[in-house]
Each structure stands twice: as structure tokens, then as C-alpha cells.
Amino acid sequence: CYPESGGQVTDKGYIGSDTVRGGLVLVYREGEHIVHRVNMALGDREALLAVHAAGECRAEVDAEKRRATERHHTATHLLHAALRTVLGDHVHQAGSLVAPDRLRFDYSHFESPTPLQAARVEQQVNDWVLANVPVSWREMPIAEAKALGAMALFGEKYGERVRMVTVDGVPAGAEWDAIEPSRELCGGTHVRRTGDIGLVVLTEENAVASGVRRIEALCGPAARTWLLDSHGTLSGVMDIMQSPIDKVIENVMKLQAELATLRKAVAASAKLGLEAEFAQLATTATQEANGRWVVARLETAGETNAIRDAADKLRGSLGRGAAVLAIVNEEKFSFLAAVSDDLVAEKKLRADELVRSVAMVTGGSGGGKPHLSLAGGRDMGKLEEALDLARAKLKAALS
Q1: Is the pTM of this model over 0.85?
Q2: What are phi and psi of 44, to 5 degrees?
Q3: Is there a smaller number of Cβ atoms within 10 Å at the N or the C end of the chain?
């Protein structure tokens, strides 16, 4: 059974006989030995050891999973070669995962490939797949392999003798040129011919670290399923949009533009409504000897920036004064405190200190600037208690 190595996952299957079976959980190397870890499916550990001692123990590899893993591993080699062909010889493997259901390949590159480059990589890999050329491997001294230009895999340690996996070549134009897309030192399992891979689709590409990017891909039946699912999604979009396939992107972009325009109009309308509501609040302010104050609860789904702008205008409307507002949006709420500049300068009130103390009553916290500050609330049941504290603080500061 294949031990987990070089990015390829362990084989699955069974070890045992007709009377005792252990399901493979993990196969790995430990020094010069290969360890098979199992969960007993039939019989117990002692029975399995007895079968082994009698020389009757056999291994049964899950052939379907092995073949799927082989497809993804050979495709990984072709993907490496295609990336170097399209992006440049500076591309080198920086990590990989080869499994029955997918492959993941990390590679050195300084920027995201363009959509055209990504398409060329996928096309190049599938051209090699369609060429159905042989995949071969043989052991040799490491010096000979390096002289042939074999590439070592990331994180692997090599002895004096190594195993080199080679794809013979692919057709270029009308002639067969000796283009060898892949010569790599590899102990993994592979298909016999590139056509056995069936199909390769690149499903994702992103950055994972500085100078390192990641591609994920699917092969064979997994790739076909992904394409069928994608086609189903596209068909659904076409039905919803009532659009032919060649107009889908254009129509979606039109909808995006219309949505952006509507959102701006709604935001502008909401802002005017907030400003009007805040202006009304100023007319209800309580007059004290040293300024005016307002404490209120507002039900609104307005955006934070619009609320800030409206609160700033409320500060101007109050003249010398302060306000504490509970902004409630369904089950969520927050507090806003606004204090006029003269009260801040005289060190009578600070919005950040005020809103923080009020929010703490509900288990919330926050802060901001001395003249305008926001804090989140947590316990809705203590909202009125928090507003009572705000009234007491403002009355004490301004009376």
C-alpha cells in the first residue's frame, strides 16, 4: 500500500483475510519500515496478528480511489510543466496535495496569472492529456537523473538512487516534437498514459504567501461532475435572466450598474430622512443652565456613515450641548454620543467616555473621538437602564 509521501495521500483499503479485516486509516514511513494503521472492521487486533504470523495476511487496495489518485498525481506533474511553459522557468513547486478527489499545487510566482494565462495553462495540460502519450518511470542514480534535467519535489529527501517519472512528449502543430513536459523525481503512483487522466479543470487560484500561489484542480470524473454542476448553475442564471449564454455577462453587468444606482438613491433618501429625524430631536432638547441635551431611542437601518453625518448636524443644531442616542436595528443596537466642541474644550464632557459608560450597562463597549463616538450594545433588556444613566450624566454635567 502506498504510504503518505510527496503530497500524495495514503491508500485506502483493507488488510487481513476472509475471517479478519482491518480498514486502512493511514499508511506512512517510519525509518525503513512502512506502517499500516487500521481500524478493525472484522475480528480484533490479536486475530489480525495471528493471521499475519501464519502468513495468510493480504492487502486489498481500494482500486477506484487509487486510480483517481493516479490521475490527480500525473496531472500535477503536467500542471507544473504547463505553468513553467506559460509563466516562465522561475516557477517551482512549493507544496502539493494529491488526493482521489482533487489536487492542490503551490508554486512560486510573483503575481496572479491573467485570465488568458490561466486559460492557456488549462489548455496546455488538456492538450497533453488528449495526446495520450506514455507515462514512464525508472530508478537510476540521482546524478544521472539530475543530468537529464529531472526536477526534485518540494520537501523530499533523496538517496543515491531515485525514481524519475517522465512523460515522453506531445504533438506540436503538424509534427511530433520531442517536447518532454515533465521529468520529475517522484515515488508516487501515476497513470500509464496521459489519456487516462480524462480531463483537467482548474477550479481556483489564489495567493497563500508572499511570492507563493496556489492552484486547485479536478481530474477525470470529479472534473466532469464539476463541469456539469457549473453548467447547471449557468443554465439557472440564463433562465432567471431570460438571456442567451452569449449575453449573460453583459446583462449581469447592466443589472449591477442598475443596482448600484438604486443603492445610491436609497442611501441618499435614508440620509435625508435621518437628518430630518435628528433635526426634530434638536427641537425636543432639554435646556439646562450650561447647555441642552437629548437622550432618545431611534429605530433605523441607516448606514453608519449616514448616522454619523446626521449626528454631526445634530451637534450643530444643539449649539452648546450633547446627545446620546440608542440606534436600534431589529435585534441589534448601538449607542452614539455627540458633544459640542465647546463642552469638550471646557472638559465638561467627552463623547467617547460618555458612550463607553452607557454601553457598559448592557455589556457592550466602544469609543471614538471626544466630540462624536459609537459603541455597541449587547443586552437589549438593559437598554432603558443605559439610557437612564445617559440622562443622569448629561443633566449632572449641564445643570
Answers
A1: no
A2: -130, 180
A3: C
